[in-house]
């Protein structure tokens, strides 16, 4: 095949595979955001059934372990790595960071308003960018910075009408900020873990670490562990299987192919999903400003989306032209 014929034949198999993999990872990212976005509803239902905040965080992770273990077994066996999911250092670090994220998130909810806690938590992408740039010496694309700025404006519009400036709640606001730092580092750690292990193995391993820490926190805080109603129990299982096994699992899938900086924008999609669920399930109607904020978030994510790797695509076409 001549070079002109190769150019006319369209993208090479390598280029198509790359594009397909990125599209699948983006779909996983969106699916993970939607699954995680409904978790506040389940937390509220579990709380109404008498389950403490740290206890609900523990059950969110612990009840997902059998599902994640089964998934990891299938993944390990298909990869020829044996019948037992194994741990990596990066996965353990991911579990520690995720535990810190959930602990500070629940503390922030207790010490400040939900709107303030949510707003500060959405600064996670900023911390991902700063750490990637300053500590990992990664080059940050201009589109990423612009996209995060647009998403942040959208986040302000989405929840800004409920924000409160209250010095008495400063401690809670700082805890919300700590949530963002832990969650931002979590993205980077999971991406590092995904370089050496599959999504299921990483998610199962980090969940084991997280569940131990959260159980200790719940016991120390004196949280009620058991729900008083069957509805509360159902909420815990739904939060665990849907929001954690599904949401965090899909996020781990996405981080195997998408940059951590871009993937961290999932928190904004999560905020949109949470707002829509609150509207449908709890009757908390969206205002025009909130709707515009959601639209800005979608625009910001589109601006920050990963670009086609022209050099690799061109190399693949060149290789095809030589055959």
UniProtKB/TrEMBL annotation:
It comes from Alsobacter metallidurans. The keyword Transmembrane helix applies. PANTHER family: ACYL-MALONYL CONDENSING ENZYME-RELATED (PTHR22911), EAMA DOMAIN-CONTAINING PROTEIN (PTHR22911:SF76). Keywords: Membrane, Transmembrane, Transmembrane helix. This is Membrane protein. It comes from the Bacteria. Residues 27-155, 171-303 form the EamA domain. One of its GO terms (cellular component) is membrane. The chain crosses the membrane at residues 23-45, 57-74, 86-108, 114-136, 143-162, 174-190, 202-222, 228-246, 258-282, 288-304. Pfam families: EamA. InterPro entries: EamA_dom, EmrE-like.
């Amino acid at each position: 095949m001549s070079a002109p014929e190769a150019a006319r034949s369209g993208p090479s198999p390598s280029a198509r595979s790359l594009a397909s993999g990125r599209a699948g990872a983006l779909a996983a990212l969106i699916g993970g955001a939607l699954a995680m976005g409904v978790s506040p509803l389940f937390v509220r239902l579990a709380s109404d059934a008498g389950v403490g905040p740290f206890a609900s965080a523990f059950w969110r992770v612990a009840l997902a372990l059998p599902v994640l273990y089964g998934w990891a077994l299938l993944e390990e066996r298909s990869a020829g790595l044996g019948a037992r999911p194994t741990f990596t250092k990066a996965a353990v670090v991911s579990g520690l960071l995720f535990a810190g994220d959930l602990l500070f998130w629940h503390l922030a909810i207790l010490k400040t308003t939900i709107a303030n806690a949510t707003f500060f938590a959405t600064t996670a992408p900023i911390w991902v960018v700063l750490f990637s740039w300053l500590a990992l010496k990664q080059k940050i694309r201009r589109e990423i910075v612009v996209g995060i700025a647009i998403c942040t404006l959208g986040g302000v519009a989405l929840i800004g009408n409920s924000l409160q400036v209250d010095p008495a709640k400063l401690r809670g606001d700082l805890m919300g900020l700590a949530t963002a730092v832990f969650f931002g580092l979590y993205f980077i750690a999971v991406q590092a873990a995904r370089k050496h292990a599959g999504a299921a193995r990483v998610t199962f391993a980090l969940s084991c670490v997280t569940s131990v820490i959260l159980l200790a926190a719940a016991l120390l805080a004196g949280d009620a562990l058991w729900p008083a109603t069957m509805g509360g129990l159902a909420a815990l299982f739904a939060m665990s299987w849907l929001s954690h096994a599904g949401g965090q699992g899909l996020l781990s899938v996405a981080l195997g192919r998408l940059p951590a900086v871009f993937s961290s924008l999932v928190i904004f999609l999560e905020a949109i999903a949470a707002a829509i669920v609150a509207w449908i399930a709890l009757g908390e109607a969206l205002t025009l400003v909130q709707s515009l904020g959601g639209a800005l978030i979608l625009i910001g994510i589109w601006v920050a989306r990963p670009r086609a790797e022209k050099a690799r695509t061109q190399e693949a076409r060149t290789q095809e032209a030589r055959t």
